[in-house]
Each structure stands twice: as C-alpha cells, then as structure tokens.
Amino acid sequence: MSTNRESGNAGRSIVPRSVKREVDDKLAFHLAMRAHDLTARGHAGDAEQIAASEFGDLARVRDECRTIAGRRDHQQRRTRFLGELARDVYFALRLLRRRRAFATIAVLTIALGIGAATGIFSVVDGVLLRALPFTEPGRLVAIWITQPRLATDPVLARYARSTVLGSEDYFALRDYNTSFRDVAVWQRGSAMLVEQTGTSEVRTVDISASLLPTLGERPVLGRGFLPTESALNGPKVALVGYETWQARFAGDSAVLGRRVMLDTTSYEIVGVVPKGLRLDRSKEPPAFWLPALQSDYDQPSHHNRSFMAVGRLKPNVSMEAAQREAGRLMRGGASDSSLGARVEDWQHDQTSDARLPLLIMLASSGLLLLIACVNVAMLTLGEAAAREREFASRIALGASAGRVIRQLLAESLTIALAGALLGTGLAWALIHTLVALAPSQLPGIDTVGIDLRALAFAIACATCAGVVFGLTPAFSLLSSGNGTSIRIGAGQSSRTARRTQRGLVAAEIALSLVLLLGASLLTRSLFTLSTVDPGFKPANVVAVRLRMSQTFPSDDALRVAFYTAMNARLGELYGPAAVSAGEYVPFSGTASSAPTQVESRVYDAFHPPPSTEQRGVFPGYFDILGIPLHAGRSFTPADAMGMELVAILSEAAARRDFPGESAIGKQVKYQGKWRRIVGVVGDVRPSHLERDGTPAIYVPLAQYPMRGVAFIIRTTHPPAVLRPAITNVLRGITGDVTLQSVDAFPSLVSRSYAEQRYRTIIVGVFALLAALLATVGLYGVTVRAVARRTREVGIRVALGATPGMVTRLMMNDTLAGALMGVVVGLPLALLLVRRISADLFGVTPQDPVAVIGALMLLSCVAVVSSALPARRAGKANPAAVLAGE
Amino acid sequence: MLANNRDRLRGTLDVLVLRTLSWGPRHGYAIARWLADESADTVHVEEGSLYPALYRMEERGLIASEWKASELGRQAKFYKLTAAGRKHLRTETASWMEFAHAVTRILQPQP
Lengths: 885, 111
Fold this sequence. Notes:
The complex is a heterodimer of chains A (885) and B (111). Chain A has 885 residues and is of the alpha+beta class. Chain A is 53% helix and 16% strand. Chain A is globular, with a radius of gyration of 38 Å. Chain B has one domain (2-107): Arc Repressor Mutant, subunit A (Orthogonal Bundle), CATH 1.10.10. In chain B, strand 2 (63-69) and strand 3 (75-81) form a beta hairpin. Classes of the chains: A alpha+beta (885), B alpha+beta (111). Chains A and B meet through helix 2 and helix 4 of A and helix 2 and helix 3 of B.
C-alpha cells in the first residue's frame, strides 16, 4: 500500500499534465454518473457524498492511476520517437544512396575534419589532459630552485626559474619541511651495460629511496631502495625496469639477486619496477634504477646541483604554502638571499613547453573541422534547395515543420556519424604519424592512441557538426516561406537561401583566413629561424661524441695523450686539417659554464664574476667549424701543456669584459688561473637558433682536458659510413672509451627546431586542407547557383549579354560572400594570431608578408573556384538553355 | 499476508473486469456498476480501486481504450478486450475454476 503511494507521489512531478487531466476527467465522470444515478433513485440531497464514500479513497486512487498512466504515456512516447527516428534514418539512408555523390563528398569532408580534430585531441589528451598514472596525481609537485638574479644573465638565464637541486637542498627539504608527505630526487643518466655478448648503452636513473613511495608505487617484484642505500658509499644495488626485465631477463623472477655490470660497477638486482614507470615521460622507460647520492661528488660539500625533485603535498597544504616553505629552506644554507623555490603541479611542469604548440595544433584542427562543417552545410543547402518542392509538398500534405527539420537533421546526423566513423580511422592513422614524427619535446606522446575518450570526442564532434550543418539549411528553407515554394518551383532559388549561402561562403573564407594566416606566420617564423646564422658553418662537418667509462684516466697528461692520439689517427683517415676536437660542441645538447674574472674588476657577493660558456678546443677547431677569427690569433699546437696559459674569447665575452677596448693581451682568470687572451672569435649559438650567441671562453684542450670531448671532422662521408671506421680507431687506442654518436652538424642544428617544424607542418597541412575544402565548397556553390539560374542566363544571353557579363554575374554571389568573409575574417584572424606571438620567431603577428600571402592564396581560391563554373555558364547557348527549360 | 490478500483480490478483480468486457466495450463507470450489481455483497470492492486496475491492465495490453460518447453525451473512455486480454481471461478462468474445484472438494463434508 505504502509503496504505491510513494511511487505515486514521486511520479507526480514527471507525469505530463495531459495525462493527469485524463485521469481526473475519468474519475470525475464516474462520480458524476454515480451521483446522477443515485439522484434518479431518490437520493437527491446526499447523492454526491454517497458516490464519494462508495468510491473510497479518491486521492489514493488518483495518484495510483496517474502513476500508471504516466508510465505508460512515457513508454508510448519513447516507442513513437524511436519508430520515427528509425523511419527518419531509413529515409536518410535511402536518400543518401540515391544521391551518392553528395553523400560521398559530405562524408569525406566531415571525416577529414573529425579525423584531424580527433587525432590532435588524442595527443592533447594524452600529453596535457590525462592525469599522470600515479595515485592522487594532483598532489604531486615538481620542486625547483629559482634564482631571479640570473634572469638577465645571457649564459644562465634558463636557471632563473628552474634550477635543479643539490643534495644539501634535498636534505634541508627532506628533514625540515612540514608541507610534504614525501620528497624525492632523481637524476637521469646512462651507462654501458656490459654483457657477454657485448656492451650497449642503456638509460638509467639515479633515485633517492623515497622516490617510489612518493609516487605511491611499489616494485612488482622484490623491494625498493632503503634509505641507507641511497646514501654515501651505499651498497651497489639496482632495480630493473619492467620492460628491460621482460626483454633481457625474460620476465624471470630469478632476476632478484643477479648481478649486472654497468660501466665498471657490478650491481645486485633487488627489485623490478612497475610496467611503464618513468619520471619524465620521455620515450623510453629507464632500463635500470640506481640509488642516488652514493658518490662523494653528490654530497653537500660539493655544492653540486644536479637533481630533479618531486614531492607529494600533504592533504590541505596549498602549493603556495609549500612553495613559501621550500623557498625558506633553500635559502637556509645558501649565501644568496634572492634564492627561492618554485612548486608546481608535476604534470603541468613537465608539459609547460608543449602546451602552447599543442593548443595551436588543437585550435587549427578545430578550425579545419568548422570549415568542413560549413562546407557540408553549403552542400546540404544546395541539395536542400533542389528539394524545395519535395519539402513544400510534404508540408502541404500535413507534415509539420518540425518533422521536416527532423528529417533534415536525421540526414545530416547520419552523414556526420558516418563521417565520425571514417574520421576515427583517419585519426588512428594520423596519430601514428604524429607519434612517429614527434620530437622528444612532447612528453608522454608514445602513450597516445585512439581510446574511448577519443571516440567520445569524435562522436560529440559529429553530433555538433551534424546539428550545425543540418539546421542551417533547414532554417533557411523554412524561413524562405515553404508555402510559396510550390508555386516558385525548383527552378528558382529563394532569396533567403541565397543569403544563407552567401553567409556560409563568408564563414568559410573567414575561418580559412584565420587558419591560413596562422600557418603562414608559423611557416615564416620557421623559415626565419632555420636561416639564422648559428655562428658557425655546419655543412659537411660531423660531431663524433665519445663515452668515457669510469676507468678513463683522470690524469690530465693521460687524457691529453689519448685525445692527441685519437686526433692523429682520425687525421690520417680524413686529413690532418679536417680533424679537431672540442668540449661541449654547439648543438650537441651539452653545455658547461664557469665564472671568469678580469683584472680591472672587483667582485664580491653582490657582484659575482659572470658566467661564461667554457670550451676546450684543439687547433683547427675554428677553421673546421668556420667560426670567424675577429682579432688576434687561433690556437696552435704550441699552446700545449706546460706552455703559457692562453685563452680566446667570443665576441660577446670580449664586449662584456672589455667594453670599448681590445681584449687581446689582457688577462682573464678562469678555473683559478690567469690566462692571456690571444684572440677573439665570433659568437656561436650554443644549442638553439632562437637564442643569441653567448659569451664564451675557449682554452687549449691540451691545457685543460675535460671529459666531454667531441671530435669534429670535415668530411662528405655520411655518419653511417664513419661510424664503423671510428669504432675501429677507438678500439686500436683504448678500451675505456666507446663511441656514443656520430652526427652531421646540419642535422644537429635542424633537430634543435624539430618541434617548431613539427607544429608548422601540421598546422600547414591543415591550412592547405582548409584551402582545398574552400575551393571545393565555393566551386560547388557556384555550380549550383549557375544551374539554378540557367533560365535567367538564357534570357540574358538572348537579350545580348556577352559571355563575360554572364560570367561576372554568376561569380558575383560567391565573390560577394568571399569578400564579406575577408572583411570579417581578417580582423578576427589578426586578433587570434596574437595569441601565438610568443611562439613566433622573427616575425610579428601582423607580418605583412604572411597576411598578404594568406589573402592572395584565398583570393586565388575564391576566383578560380567560382570562375570555372561561371565561365561555362557564359558560354551557354541560349537556344539550348531555353529549350531545356 | 495483507499483500497476499490484496494480490489475490487484485487478480480476481482483473478477471472479473475482463469477464465484463467479454460481452462488449463499456466505460469504467459501467464496469463498476456491473460489478456492484452482480456481486453485490459477495465480493466487496471499493469502486475506486477499479480504476488503477483498468490502467494497469491497459498497460499490460490486456485491454484497449478509445474515446466515445457516453449515455449522458459526455466523452468517456470505452474499454474493450484485446486478443491478449481474451487469452488471459481464458487461462485465469480455467485456473480459478481448478482452484475453486480443489478447495470445494477439500471443504466438502465427507459422507
């Protein structure tokens, strides 16, 4: 009993009023009839009361009836709706089969738009949106030291916001913080894995014992590191990456306790980290995880900052509070009072460089999708205009306007969903290309793929698209006065349809203009960037980088002996003048700087000696790399160990340290020793073309041999040919050094702007597709306009219009729309591209070349695509046209 | 127990209504009158409870309704049996008879 009443009450609100009234009427009818009968039997006075009492609980009965009737009504509506939907879809499919050309073009166009949008969305989703695969990823933060003082330093500016931590910073943070549940540090590395079958380079990562607990991860096998292991002279234990475990140890659980030889140290494997676990989302998970902080070099006394840091915030601690506290702790032991800390969401921090480029790509794919929609809307409108008579007669025969709109919507949604299906396939292919071509700057890109989220995105896109391009023609048709269409007939188009058509042309041109302008700006920017003079001549020079094992002698004389021997052997192969060596060669991804002092300045804590890029080089280095000598002399073999200490400054260093005077002959203090400056050379951009050349000091390698030496060879041989020869040479000299890489300098330089090229190519392809779609769309519009107006053309020609006049007349509509599109689109485009100005190099968002280029391309599109069909109309034979009517 | 009684009553009411309609379409009030007149005191039903039963059977597809003019000239909903309703009536009648027969046999004083 009570259940019924409850459901009755609960259901009352959703029961339609018509159903309620029907129930009420019925019950009232019963009571009235009964009262009527009772009156007839003589109960004149109390007929109603008797009727009511016989009836029982009126309110309960009413509620119960309403609930049942409401439920039934709902079911009926749904059945009716589904039935009509099925019919609509059936009609739509039949229609599309009949108009195969229209359907094919429409589906392909939408598939193109949805494919592009879904593909890029998947990348954005995978890189930017999807949470990191750790428990409570929102509490994980990156911790950096900030050094605001460095913001204006040409060499060290990149450290101003993001300096890695030293062990002293880590210990301070670990021992005294109140904001973090856990703090951990790590450091990327690589090692030569020595096996019986040979040696190979593997990626490693040094981690503090707290790292896995911070992330909320546990080894899938064995154990993690103990705090006593990531400490000075801790035991040599290692975790193996899941992938490496599978590949090299066949997933055997007996791996625990086995030993691996990394460089010259034997490690005991104590655990296996979970599948796919990695800290920087670069393409490959590390092969081995080693305990950090074991070497003397990593102890606080060395003030060596080389650790990335990650922390897990305690609940209810804000990032700002954690940042304030971390800043205080960082300043604790340091003399620099301007030191601070930056605490930022870990994922956000990892993807900050990728964000703008990805959003640019996403925006451009969105524009392409919109353009595709407009295109299909134009197509559908043209198609619908030809069907005016059909719709008019259906409305005349009693179909409501709503039914006709639904019919049109069903058609457009069918097209859109078919497009989405095909588009998802396209997206899949696109993603493969995107992932394969992706530069390493896109973290996590290798995990990108088509999944349910992407599919949902595609379907959402399709639904919106279907509604947009279905409703536009529908409303245009209906507002054109459907009742009169019968009289007008299909031969002439209504004014509203033409106006809508013109609006769509305008929208298409405006959207294309935004995309084209963006693409041409990026292209111009890329071109400017790629033609920047790096300060040296990369052509026909290769960089040979070596890997020194731990046993490589630390004795300067032995090192110099090795470098000299290697130089001589390579000189025998490729010509003595074509071979030299240098530390931290440009664009090799490594750089190093040291403070330098000059005699005439006084330095103190507030005015520390400035940082200068340091490079030790062999004679011939400047010649081979084509770095111009501006003053003084180059190094010679005479600048050897035990001889006078000399140095060469780069132009920027000379200007900074000796403004307004010649640097030649002056003294500069470098690594604790005074050196006489013997020459000044041109500036070299160290790693990126968009960054200016930095102040640099060059010293003879023979006088200051470091470990990061690369040999440079001027040769026309490709790296693949050089590699075996150099490996041979190395083997003949020492076993402590292996070949790391052989790269042609031009490819090193172009790799430095790979990301810019990537995004430019993608946006550029989208823009070209947009131009193609615009061409097809405008062409279609004009063809239809011409077809609709054949009769008018015939009369005009009969009355003496020249073909030229007819052509112009036919083009007018399309061109007017296009012009409108430019008028609206240009300010819009200029406004929107301002947002990418941070990503442009050497061009302003208003760059006239880009603007004019985009406009010219679009003008060509508009004129060509409308002139072709219009000219055909102009050549028409009036007699034939009129006879055909 | 109460629920059981109610269910049995409801089931019985349904069969009675179907039986009423087996002679031809009629509206709710007419069904109510017939039930009241025929079974006067034996099966006492509040007239009101007829209506939820009608809606429920309509929902189950046992009866169908259409608007017609009633005796008083007002529009009223006339119910008629559907094929499913006819079948339901047959099976329910049979099972009721069987039940009644069994109960009767048990209750009959043994000679």
